[in-house]
Amino acid sequence: MNKTIVIVGGGAAGLEAAAALGSSPHHVLILEKENKTGGKLKNWHHLFPNFADASEILKSLEKTLPLNNSEVKYNSDVFKIEQMDGNLIVLLKKGEKIKADAVLLATGFDLFDAYKKEEYGHGVYKNVVTSAELEEMFAKKTFPEQLKDGTPKKFAMVHCVGSRDKKAGNMHCSKLCCITGVKQAIELHKYLPNSSVYNFYMDLRMYGQHFEEIYQEAQEDYGVKFIRGRVSEIAEISDGRLQVKAEDTLSGRPMKMIFDMVVLMIGMTPAASTASIAQSLGLPKTNAGFLAPLHQHLFANETCIPGLFIAGTCREPLSVQESITDARAAALKIIEWLKLKENN
Amino acid sequence: MEQEGKKRIWSEYQKEIADDHYFYVRSCIRQTFFPGSETTFLRILRDELSRDVYEDARHTTCTGIGYHSDIVPFETIMTIAARHFALMTEAGYVNFVPSCVTSFGIYTEILDTWKHFPEMEAKARDFLWTATRREFQTPENLSHTSDVIYKFRNQLASSSKHQLVNKRDGKPLKVVEHIGCHYAKMFPKCGVGGAEFPAVLSGMIAAWGGEVIDYPERRHCCGFGFRQYLIKANRGYSLSNSKKKFESMQPYQPDFIVANCPGCTMFLDRWQYTIAEMEGITYNESGKGIPVLTYEEMAGLVIGYDPWVMGLQMHQISVEPLLDKIGIVYNKKDKYLGSKRQYIGVPLQPLFLLQ
Fold first, then answer.
1. Which of A149, A252, A335, B198 is deepest in the core (most CB within 10 A)?
2. Does residue A261 share a domain with residue A191?
3. CATH of the domain at B229
4. A187 lies in which domain range?
């Protein structure tokens, strides 16, 4: 035995897959492009639906990393993978080549670049922030000073920014932004109890366990308002607050409101860093541009390349919980594959 | 307001603007509304920038107003556009420069349609041949006249006589820029700076020393809207749109408004008079209204052209307060002289917008 398994990406899926492979006799090498593991999870404050501390989840994932047979190589940006004599050769940008018996791509996702929705003025109006930036404010407690003067504040959460939007080039639903908007609305209320939070949505997809409950809780216990309608444009007024124009499609009327801050609920898009790897192997992609599995139902973690597996958000938008489960499934498939390879 | 964010957006919308040899097509309404603007454009291009600009007297209306009012069918307007391209081809030009934003939008729409539906272009060619025995090449470059002035803004700034600066306190003049909807809202890639934060006029203002005001209703339509204005019963819509903009820009106390569309310049100017007469409201502290200029007029003032030769007396809102702020010396008596220095008469005084 003692095969080499390379995991590309040290986020939630990569870490969990390494932990799950810990009981195997194989050598597990995580290639992390940054100087620390955690991926997007390390920038998050609390996770829906139970407001779990993201840093605690990350610590747990890192703690379970087996010390005996695993290794993390930091600042290791993979740009290409080649097939050679039944093995896979992983090429790093810094010139190194690593031979692997199996490779798991856990390269994660990119956040939609909100500036592409120019009408919302992200990057132009300083009080227009993304959900990721708000999360960072929660984590680092770096709220703008004007929000802390004790007067009631008004927040708008704009859903589906860059998701289900043909104009933005993304037809897919990122599925997690709805519940993130509800979670962050509650957190804003907790942080600034006198504030009013308005969610502008197309429809709310509360698909997961306990999602519907916190959606109700947001309305009943925190007075969060939900307006069915997309925001057409945002403009800054003279005191730096924001004028938001939208249509309330339930009442059939256009509306114009002033907010202290607008939060854009940005979706998940395929990671740009994954594209060159996929291209080098000729890996097919889904319509949304994520890595396509061999079979959506039966072989969700396998690919058309023998020995190459995928897990987590590089294959579709997934929550942290779903990514972890997905990573375990992928690990199991890798062990099966290596056994099969040895027997053959 | 973060300028870096705007610059990032602008970097995505840098269009190619021809450098010389323009086939110039006039607007049918600008010549009535601001008769000196198009002449000023030609004067700037020919005299200040030594550029070659060609005009053909056989050029007609693009029929855009009829098209947007559902009177002129697409096949008809397409054939008329084809005829104008034929005039350009016959004259040996490839750079097509319309003066009107509606026309610019029409030509952009037609060229884009032909790109995606070549059979439509074939149809237009067939109609034009049947009707006139003419053939044409599509333009290599289509730019609006405001694009052309934008292109040369820094060159004009280097030889300017005046700046958009208040002579009394040395501060930049606060300028509202209004972009015609048909300039970039339909095809953002065809406008300098795109549709949300267009740079075509703000670029001129910044180059000439002014300060652009970004007020909440900046992107809102002026209210012209073709059917809103053309049908008399709908004119309240047109007026209320302009009113919304005036109320939104008022707290910033703009020194003047500049627009690149005939309808916008006309209505932002004339509706101030209408609102003043109807409600006794004016939108600046002096009660004289906010002067409205075309970009050619703004350029002409910066260069040092005589305001009355440029036809600024044709504006509803008097421009004298603005001229005084910039420090432009003008002869009050010349205001009411025509192109041949004949006396053209003094209009009646409005009740509220006192001159």
1. B198
2. yes
3. 3.40.50.11810
4. 114-268
Q: How far is A318 from chain B (nearest CA, A)?
A: 30
Helical (H) or strand (E) element with A266: strand A261-266
pLDDT at A1: 57
Residue B289 to residue B320: CA distance in whole angstroms:
11
Contact A236 B9 (CB under 8 A): no
Identify whether residues B160 and B202 lie together within a single domain.
Answer: yes
What are the Cα distances from residue A151, in Å, to A137, A187, A241, B44, B228?
A: 19, 17, 14, 54, 42
**Is A243 touching B (CB cutoff 8 A)?**
yes
Number of domains in chain B: 2
Q: What is the DSSP letter of A119?
A: G
Peptide bond into A49 cis (omega under 30): yes
pTM above 0.95, yes or no: no
Q: What ipTM was estimated for this complex?
A: 0.86
| Nearest CB partner across the interface for A123, out of B2, B214, B219 | B2
Residue A22 sits in the same domain as residue A140: no
Judgement on whether residues B136 and B156 belong to the same structural domain of the protein: no
- Which tens digit of pLDDT belongs to each residue from B277-317? 999 999 998 889 999 999 999 999 999 999 999 999 999 99
Contact between A235 and B196 using a beta-carbon 8 Å cutoff:
no
A235 touches B: beta carbon within 8 Å: yes
| DSSP code at position B48 | I
